[in-house]
Design a protein that fits this description.
The protein is α+β, with helices and mostly antiparallel strands and 353 residues long. It has 14 helices and 9 strands. It has one domain: Glycosyltransferase (Alpha/alpha barrel). The chain is 51% helix and 6% strand. Helix 1 packs antiparallel against helix 13.
């Protein structure tokens, strides 16, 4: 295995380090394509997809394809997936709830894989899965445009939405619309849903549960493409000092002395998307302290106690870092998906709604 040029970033990854990080994800992937969080851990559709996308940045397209086929084989008849599956080789569901952003996100991965490979046959085969998943998700849109965040274990939809989850769903809808456009199969319901959702995320924070202490609620409206340009820059500056710990990374929550690799890498990706590449590189350099000698990354670090916590090295942390590095390195598929300049935006919402 050789490292893609896009995965080489001074002070973050050299060629040998990039290869080691990719191998750390491949080492966790099961023969059936599933990518657990870590050895013996469970897996969920969102983090599984993020790890698969990272594999595509490294040219590991066959492994990524196996990950998407695992999803297709386990999709529920209504288009959903469960929130958790056993990751130790046992078949079965570890969390029978359904989370809407988990269900939507495979659309992002499928489009990223197609852009990475140009494989139309793959896209043809995955299209029914994507269509069912996004139809399911759009069916849970609330009157204010936001998306109900979950079904409980009894299949009852909550009438509440999460800003982070809805922001991620917006990104997924835009990628789904890109697939539909490529296939010349218009999806007007998705276009309307995306426009209403973008408006809710950008203009109506009161329509979402208050999770302001979480850094993901800070940067996800940017990463999920609802905010770009001056509005994104203002949002980044507003809470920079509240969440960013110089030299260490990004807090998961504002009132805890805990920085996490996933949030740090995702913020770096959001910063790159709005033209703040120097800041993005600096944050990725900071989280070198989370890197294990085998190329994997610890989930987080409690700096007041000088302690790694939890004591797990997650595939999605490594995946988020690889995606951020790939965007900074100009990987065309990653740039297209997260830069979002060419993604369909849906129908614009105007007026007072």
């Amino acid at each position: 295995m050789t490292a893609s040029e896009a995965l080489l970033l001074p002070g973050v990854l050299d060629a040998a380090q990039a290869v080691a990080t990719v191998r750390s994800i491949l080492a966790e992937q099961r023969a059936d394509g599933a990518i657990p969080w870590f050895t013996g851990g469970h897996l969920d559709p969102w983090d599984h997809t993020e790890a698969a996308m990272a594999l595509d940045t490294a040219g590991e397209h066959a492994a990524a394809e196996r990950a998407y086929r695992w999803l297709a084989d386990r999709q529920n008849p209504d288009g959903s997936w469960y929130a958790g599956y056993f990751g130790d080789g046992a078949e079965g569901v570890s969390n029978p709830a359904v989370e809407t952003n988990f269900c939507a996100y495979p659309a992002v991965g499928v489009w990223h894989h197609h852009l990475s490979t140009g494989d139309d046959t793959f896209l043809d085969q995955m299209w029914p899965m994507v269509r069912r998943a996004l139809d399911f998700t759009v069916g849970l849109q609330l009157s204010g445009g936001q998306i109900a965040w979950r079904l409980d274990e009894h299949g009852t939809a909550v009438q509440e939405a999460l800003l982070t989850g809805s922001s991620s769903i917006l990104h997924a809808l835009r990628c789904g619309l890109a697939i539909a456009e490529y296939r010349e199969e218009p999806q007007p319901d998705w276009e309307l849903a995306a426009g209403r959702l973008q408006h809710a995320v950008a203009e109506h924070p009161e329509r979402f549960l208050d999770k302001d202490r979480y850094s993901m609620d800070w940067y996800y409206p940017v990463l999920g493409t609802a905010l770009r340009g001056p509005a994104a820059q203002q949002r980044i500056e507003r809470d920079w000092e509240r969440f960013v710990v110089p030299g260490l990374g990004v807090r998961c929550v504002s009132d805890r002395p805990w920085v996490t690799g996933g949030e740090s890498a995702e913020l770096a990706l959001a910063l790159w998307a709005v033209g703040q590449s120097d800041r993005a590189v600096e944050i990725l350099q900071w989280i070198r302290h989370l890197r294990h000698e085998d190329g994997s990354y610890w989930t987080g670090y409690v700096f007041e106690d000088d302690a790694i916590w939890p004591e797990e090295r997650t595939t999605w942390t490594a995946g988020a870092l690889l995606l951020a590095v790939a965007a900074l390195g100009g990987d065309p598929a990653t740039v297209a998906v997260f830069g979002a300049e060419q993604l369909p935006s849906g129908l614009a919402v105007v007026g007072c709604c």
